[in-house]
Amino acid sequence: MTRLAAATRGLSAPLAALDLTAFDANAGDLARRAGGLPIRVASKSLRCRDALTRVLALPGYAGVMAYALAEALWLVGHGIDDVFVAYPSVDRAALAALLRDDRARAEVTITIDSVEHVDLLADALGRGSRVRVAIDVDCSVRLGRLHLGVRRSPVRTPSDAVTVARAAQAAGLSVVGALFYDAQVAGLPDASAVVRWLKRRTVAELPERRAAVVEALRGVANLAFVNGGGTGSLHTFTGDASVTELAAGSGLYGPTLFDGYRSFHPEPALQVGLPAVRRPAPGVVTLFSGGYVASGEPGWSRVPHPVDRALALLRTEGAGEVQTPVRGASADRVALGDTVWFRGAKAGELLERFDTVHVVEGDAVVATWPTYRGEGRNFG
Questions:
Q1: Cα(231)–Cα(120) distance, rounded to whole angstroms?
Q2: Which class for 50: exposed (0-12), middle (13-18), buried (19 or more C-beta within 10 A)?
Q3: pLDDT in tens, 274-305
Q4: What whole-number percentage of the chain has pLDDT above 90?
Q5: How far is residue 23's CA from residue 55's CA, in Å, rounded to a whole number?
Q6: pLDDT tens across 225-254, in order?
Q7: Shortest CA distance to 270 belongs to which of 292, 284, 286, 253?
Q8: Are 115 and 133 in contact (CB under 8 A)?
Q9: What pLDDT is stored for residue 184 in this prediction?
Q10: pLDDT of residue 303
């Protein structure tokens, strides 16, 4: 029996549990890989205020990278400082709330990536709002017309960035930052020779372009921060003087997505337990619930996986909405009512299915933290 299983024995499942020792170890390893640059914590990868608060108190961490403006306002309202919303917002109700809140306007920075978006913000906020904004810059690799990487910002060159910055300033916004997220390095496992080549190509060519964009932006704006990286790429920023801070979050929980990386191996801190409810055949046991399939490109890499490697999902059923059958050498030893443990493919979105996460230290549950969902919050 694992420590999480022993500590949570007697609690009703399905349940989520966080190994605090593994969480803190992952935080320390991320800080080590950051090489002295502060890490802004990606809230979407945690979705639990207590987890955010804990990691922000550790050495090497400063500020939050939020995923929605409404979320940022909520976090600031609970005393969290320096929140950067790393995705463009068109939420007019949240923008109006930002404008009314002096503390939020001082602590929240929102993302822009086009003159079109600047025009929308000017219409929603009025000109002269002095709301803090940062420019998201595309970090994909381009080979002719071939685009390798995620589809994020249309801003790519120094000229692109300066054009958006000047439009923002003309609209009365304060340009205070820049964002460079190398998704194909930070969030893509080393699954093939092609992926590894893409990562090497990105790491080789991006720093020069990033430095040029930052230099151009500093010529027209007083940048407070230049953010880069993610859990999978922190170690690639050593010696990059154009970046002032990094970002990470998923590596704190250690989901299965990062099992495929060669350069680091986070501990599996967050796990979910499902109760066994029936035995349809020898070598098969069926669990209640479990359909916690992660977002992104569809496929088996997105489904939760049993911690016990002697168990596997059935290819014909996968992880189900209300039942998840598993088979393997351990199946017949699982009694009805026993809990079978899983790890999610991605990190924070797993907690959208749970109101609380039980925090385990040593062999005991030492706290029960509400998730965003448990606090009645859903930011999309």
A1: 32
A2: middle
A3: 999 999 999 999 999 999 998 988 889 899 99
A4: 74
A5: 9
A6: 999 988 888 888 877 888 999 999 999 999
A7: 253
A8: no
A9: 67
A10: 94
Q: Are 122 and 103 in contact (CB under 8 A)?
A: no
Q: At what angle do helices 193-218 and 158-170 cross, to 10 degrees?
A: 50
Residue-level length of the chain:
380
Return the residue matching tokens 């904004």.
133
pLDDT at 187: 66
Instruction: Assign residue 174 a region (left: φ > 0; alpha: ψ between -120 and 50; beta: otherwise).
Output: beta
**66/83 Cα distance (integer angstroms):** 6
Tell me the three state secondary structure of residue 252.
helix
DSSP of 310-328, one letter per residue?
TEEE-TTT-S-SSEEEEEE
Which residues are paired to 237 by β-bridges? none
Long-range contacts of 71-77 (CB under 8 A, 24+ apart): 71/43, 71/372, 71/377, 71/379, 72/104, 72/108, 72/110, 73/97, 73/98, 73/101, 73/104, 73/108, 74/377, 75/43, 75/49, 76/101, 76/103, 76/104, 76/107, 76/108, 77/104
Provide CB contacts within 8 A for 256, sequence distance 6+.
301, 304, 305, 343, 344, 345
Strands 270-281, 284-288: pairing is: antiparallel
Whole-number Å distance between alpha carbons of 198 and 74: 38
Q: Alpha helices of 9-91 — where are they, by DSSP H? A: 20-33, 49-56, 69-77
Do the strands 225-228 and 245-248 form a parallel or antiparallel pair, or are they unpaired? Answer: parallel
pTM of the entire predicted model:
0.91
pLDDT < 50: residue spans in the chain: none
Q: Interhelix angle for 49-56 vs 20-33, to 10°?
A: 50
Residue with tokens 């596997």: 312
Q: Domains of the chain, with CATH numbers?
A: 3-13+266-375 (2.40.37.20), 67-248 (3.20.20.10)
Tokens of 357: 């996460």
Measured between alpha carbons, how far is residue 285 from residues 167, 352, 359, 364 in Å? 60, 26, 27, 27
